[in-house]
Amino acid sequence: MTGWRGWSVRRQDALLTALVVVIGVADTWIKPSNGLLTGQPTAVAAVTSGLVGSVLWWRRRSPGVVAAVIMVGYVITFTPVALAVAMYTVGEAYRRIRTLVRFGVAGCAAGVLVLWAGPPDWDLRAAAFTLAFILGPLVVGYAVAIRRDLAIEAQATIDAMERERHLLVERAQVGERARIARELHDVVAHRVGNIVLTAGALKVGPEARGAPAVARAAELIRDEGHQALEELREVLGVLTPGRRGRQNRPAATAPQPDASQLDKLVERSARFGRPATLRIDGHPETLPAPVQRAIHRIVQEGLTNAAKHAPGASVGVVVECRVDGVEVQVTNGHPAGGDRYVDAPPLPPSGGNGLIGLAERVALLDGKITAGPYDGGYRIDAFIPHRPAAP
Ligand SMILES: Nc1ncnc2c1ncn2[C@@H]1O[C@H](COP(=O)(O)OP(=O)(O)OP(=O)(O)O)[C@@H](O)[C@H]1O
Ligand SMILES: [Mg+2]
């Protein structure tokens, strides 16, 4: 614990005690009254004064006992400064008025005793001054303590209000997330559902009879749409916790994609006629879950972008676990048949969100990502450092 100008409380107390001892000893030589020791050899009174002052060292641990001992010492050798400090400490330490009154009365009694034991030249003014020097510090100590209590209470109220505000903001965010999730569902699920149904009908319809390529393509479209609906449902489950499904079961939480599914991603790309190579150095499946998720999303977006923006180009995926982090590269070559074929099917809608999303994801993990033309094709290059484990 530190206090005045960064001094520890022990150092402050040591200084205060030493000061009171010095004042008590010096005071003994110059003042005519030394309590019950008035008239005794000054050296004896001085040593006693010093001893009384030194008791203040324990004032924080046992303020009441220290005050009682110093009151006795005060009567014996008149040590007003030590008593003032002891009374201040009592005022600061106790909150019960009855206790404070008891100490006040005992202090005044000690003051009267000292006046009685000292030289008989005191008058009412001197007596009032003596008692004020005893009661004043008691009142000041009490006021300081009350002020400190009020400040602590005010701080506690501010903290509670701050916590409440956080809770309200959090609740509003949860509500907003749920609203967006429902919106997402209404917009996407209906149309993807139509695609799945149409593809299913196409697969078993007359168009596919005797045309295995058409049947295969229809099946792929149906599977992919089905998968998209599943993932959408799972993401909705995360966004709207507590929401219950049709069978009144809690919505499932999304199984998070990880680095162990990279080969599946590449395989699926090949099923759609977009083969890619995958090289994994090290064991990315042992990395923290958020890093694995980021790797998965980078490869997924890279494969999708290559298929979309560079159809027919060769694609290579490299995941390299290094000492300082993991590097992920998705590189595609030049699109086959020029930048785009003349009779190429129209591009799926482009939101321009894919790379932005990846950049945000990687930045959250303190990583870096670059994406741009590379050797006639395109490359996404991301690096995510290992972070020291949270303490
Ligand atoms: N492999 C690539 N080859 C050529 N251009 C690319 C490639 N990947 C990305 N780009 C360019 O970068 C742009 C941004 O890509 P980004 O993935 O952010 O958006 P998008 O793919 O167009 O849409 P979406 O939001 O669906 O991902 C693309 O519009 C495209 O011009
Ligand atoms: Mg994209």
Corresponding CATH superfamily of the domain at 257-391? Histidine kinase-like ATPase, C-terminal domain
What is the 3D shape? Answer: rod-shaped
The residue fraction in helices comes out at 55-70%
Low-confidence stretches: 245-251
Structural class by helix and strand composition = alpha+beta
Keywords, separated by commas or semicolons:
Heat Shock Protein 90; 10 helices; rod-shaped; binds adenosine-5'-triphosphate; binds magnesium ion
SSE map:
Layout: H1 9-30, H2 42-54, H3 63-77, H4 80-93, H5 97-117, H6 124-204, H7 212-239, H8 262-271, E1 276-281, H9 289-309, E2 315-321, E3 325-332, H10 354-364, E4 368-374, E5 377-385
Parallel strand pairs: 1-2
Antiparallel strand pairs: 2-3, 3-5, 4-5
Helix pairs in contact: 1-2, 2-3, 3-4, 3-5, 4-5, 4-6, 5-6, 6-7, 8-9, 9-10
The chain binds adenosine-5'-triphosphate (ATP) and magnesium ion (MG).
Adenosine-5'-triphosphate is lined by residues 301, 305-306, 308-310, 332, 350-356, 378.
Brief digest:
The protein has 10 helices and 5 strands, in the order H-H-H-H-H-H-H-H-E-H-E-E-H-E-E.
Could you characterize the architecture of this molecule?
- The chain is an alpha+beta fold.
- Among the domains are: 119 residues, no CATH class; 135 residues, Heat Shock Protein 90 (2-Layer Sandwich).
- It is 60% helix and 9% strand.
- Strand 1, helix 9 and strand 2 form a beta-alpha-beta unit.
- Helix 2 packs antiparallel against helix 3, helix 4 packs parallel to helix 6 and helix 9 packs antiparallel against helix 10.
- It is rod-shaped.
- Adenosine-5'-triphosphate (ATP) binds next to helix 9 and helix 10.
